[in-house]
Amino acid sequence: MIQVRGNSFDELMATVKILIIPGSLRTGSLNARLAAVIAKEFAVANVDVTRLSLADYSLPIYDGDLEVKSGVPKSAVNLERMMSAHHGIVFVTPEYNSSLPPLVKNAIDWVTRVEDRGRTQGQVFRERAFAIASASEGRLGGSRCLAALRLILSGCRATVIPNQLALSFADHAYDDAERLKHKADADTLRAMVMQLIDVAQQMTRGI
Ligand SMILES: Cc1cc2nc3c(=O)[nH]c(=O)nc-3n(C[C@H](O)[C@H](O)[C@H](O)COP(=O)(O)O)c2cc1C
Questions:
Q1: The pLDDT of residue 204 is above 90
Q2: Which structural domain, as residue segments, surrounds residue 136?
């Protein structure tokens, strides 16, 4: 049995918890589809993986007056708690006009305002490992959105792993078994998943 710093490899894998956040609520979303494939890859690696829907964390557009009047919405607190309960977080998001959809940016903005259970504002970003992925019908696969998202998360002082996936021509990227049909895409996905597990493992002592 492989031993890693006193724990078995299987024990460590079972300890790591990964949260996947799709950035689209659309029926038939290409990004929700990719999120499902990414989740499967974590499960194959024997990692505890959860996929949420931002539909369950409905939020108004950030408004400072609203925050002063009513505080941070409960959905933002719940989302921050959900993120806090995991070691690694994957955003899988569409590209809108070369950047992030408001759904994703707004969720990040609200979560950075949460102070909860002794955690300070933005602590959840600073103490978690993040991976980013996108799917688009276009040739660039949403890579400009990933650049924007990496900048935003880095601004939150998050650890964003170098490996990422921008899935081009995502409407034709799968075989009949719902696997990525191009080896290059599958290899990129696997490298991202394994790197996130590796980095997240180093953060397991923090929770
Ligand atoms: C407002 C808007 C802007 C878009 N801008 C881009 C873009 O800049 N680059 C791109 O690749 N696709 C763009 N698209 C197309 C989306 O990538 C495509 O609709 C994708 O399927 C959306 O993700 P989803 O299927 O997960 O909902 C845009 C779509 C919308 C609605």
A1: no
A2: 3-206
| C-beta of 97 in contact with ligand 1 (< 6 A) | yes
Query: Does residue 169 have its Cβ closer than 6 Å to ligand 1?
Result: no
User: Does 27 contact ligand 1 (Cβ within 6 A)?
Assistant: no
**What sign results for the dihedral spanned by CA atoms 1, 199, 123, 135?**
negative
User: Ligand 1 pocket test: which of 29, 103, 105, 137 has the largest number of ligand atoms within 8 Å of its C-beta?
Assistant: 137
Q: Which two tokens stand for residue 19?
A: 């949260």
- Taking alpha carbons only, the member of 206, 197, 202 closest to residue 84 is 206
User: What is the number of alpha carbons within 13 Å of residue 180 lying toward its C-beta?
Assistant: 25
65-96 pLDDT, tens digit per residue, is 999 999 999 999 999 999 999 999 999 999 99
Q: Is the CB of 201 under 6 A from ligand 1?
A: no
Name which residue sits closest to atom 30 of ligand 1, judged by CA. 96
Amino acid identity of 116? Answer: D
Pairing of β 159-160 and β 129-135: parallel
CATH code of the domain covering residue 94: 3.40.50.360
CA of 204 relative to ligand 1 center, distance in Å: 35
Residue of 206 and 47 predicted with greater confidence: 47
Domain count of the chain?
1
Contact 25, 55 (CB under 8 A): yes
